[in-house]
UniProtKB/TrEMBL annotation:
Keywords: RNA-binding. GO terms for molecular function: mRNA binding. It comes from Leucothrix arctica. Residues 1-79 form the RRM domain. This is RNA-binding protein. It comes from the Bacteria. It holds the Pfam family RRM_1. InterPro entries: Euk_RNA-bind_prot, Nucleotide-bd_a/b_plait_sf, RBD_domain_sf, RRM_dom. PROSITE patterns: RRM.
Amino acid sequence: MKLLIRNIARNITQADLTEMFEKFGTVQSCTLVMDKETGESKGFGFAELPKIGDAKAAIKLLNGKEFSGSKLRVKKADD
């Protein structure tokens, strides 16, 4: 299941994001969207967890959680 993560603090790295989701199970992919001109984070990204149960647990526990000063918004990504 592909998840959309919004409101990511600008100081969070892709490695930080991956590590956060690995706590819930295998992470197939994790991408922090970067601005092509500045090279800085745009504040959102995607994580893909192959097991639906792991993805649902991540949504339940991370949506609304404060991480590095920002309240994350995590939901199933529209395909």
